């Protein structure tokens, strides 16, 4: 790999294989998967249930170690990295948006982001302006920013999730079925938003979805089938 291609890749999976125990055999969830995503690029991954999409995100987020192959995140080869360092790298470099909103029920939208800063041991006071700005940029107005999750719509909750995932300034954004709880129009708006933040924040974004109707905004669409990516 040349220096130029290295700097142009924020996330790279090289011949990654992941297996799970399955009785006295092993089930292959990822079968020599290779993928490189550049900063500012939105890659969509589609595929049937059980084809390995969530496994792909778990390996890309360095949550799971592959059986074979390498994951290079923000220029760091994670293969031989101790767990503690992998966790730190994930916290700093990876933003994750899950299918369902997993916001804390007792916190307002702004506080959801400040909680991230608190957990990192940072200054909550110093982070407030940035949290407000980020929520504004994903389309959450002044009133919405003061609401707890049960008083936000599904689309608004996903916007808060996206803002929270971006809060640490990650180089990689991993998004798992962000529209599954939304109607088509709101789903489209969320994908539009993800395309926008990918450009503005220069994240290498991987979006897993069942919904082929949402793929128009992706730079590339890849299909996962039986653990293989093509
Ligand atoms: N923790 C686990 N233990 C054992 N097998 C697992 C585990 N997680 C996933 N698998 C298996 O690995 C394969 C890939 O699963 P994965 O969840 O990655 O698929 P998926 O494409 O995300 O599916 P869905 O669209 O239904 O979420 C499946 O056969 C699944 O049963």
UniProtKB/TrEMBL annotation:
Gene3D superfamilies: P-loop containing nucleotide triphosphate hydrolases. GO terms for molecular function: ATP binding; ATP hydrolysis activity; transmembrane transporter activity. Residues 11-229 form the ABC transporter domain. CDD domains: ABC_MJ0796_LolCDE_FtsE. Coiled coil: none annotated. Keywords: ATP-binding, Nucleotide-binding, Transport. SUPFAM superfamilies: P-loop containing nucleoside triphosphate hydrolases (SSF52540). GO terms for cellular component: plasma membrane. This is Putative ABC transport system ATP-binding protein. It comes from Streptomyces olivoverticillatus.
């Amino acid at each position: 790999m040349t220096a130029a291609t290295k700097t142009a890749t924020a996330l790279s999976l090289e011949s990654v294989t992941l297996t799970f125990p399955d009785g006295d055999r092993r089930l292959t969830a990822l079968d020599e998967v290779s993928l490189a995503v550049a900063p500012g690029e939105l890659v969509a991954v589609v595929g049937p249930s059980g084809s390995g999409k969530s496994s792909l995100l778990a390996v890309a987020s360095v949550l799971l170690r592959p059986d074979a192959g390498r994951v290079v995140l923000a220029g760091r080869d994670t293969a031989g990295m101790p767990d503690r360092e992998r966790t730190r790298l994930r916290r700093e470099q990876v933003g994750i948006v899950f299918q369902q909103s997993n916001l804390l029920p007792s916190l307002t939208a702004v506080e959801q982001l400040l909680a991230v800063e608190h957990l990192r041991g940072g200054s909550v006071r110093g982070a407030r302006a940035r949290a407000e700005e980020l929520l504004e940029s994903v389309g959450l107005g002044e009133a919405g920013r003061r609401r707890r999750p049960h008083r936000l719509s599904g689309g608004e909750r996903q916007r808060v999730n996206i803002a929270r995932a971006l809060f640490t300034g990650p180089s990689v954004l991993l998004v798992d079925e962000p529209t599954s709880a939304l109607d088509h129009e709101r789903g489209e708006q969320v994908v539009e938003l993800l395309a926008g933040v990918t450009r503005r924040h220069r994240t290498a974004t991987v979006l897993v979805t069942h919904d082929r109707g949402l793929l128009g905004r992706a730079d590339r669409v890849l299909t996962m089938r039986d653990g293989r990516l093509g």
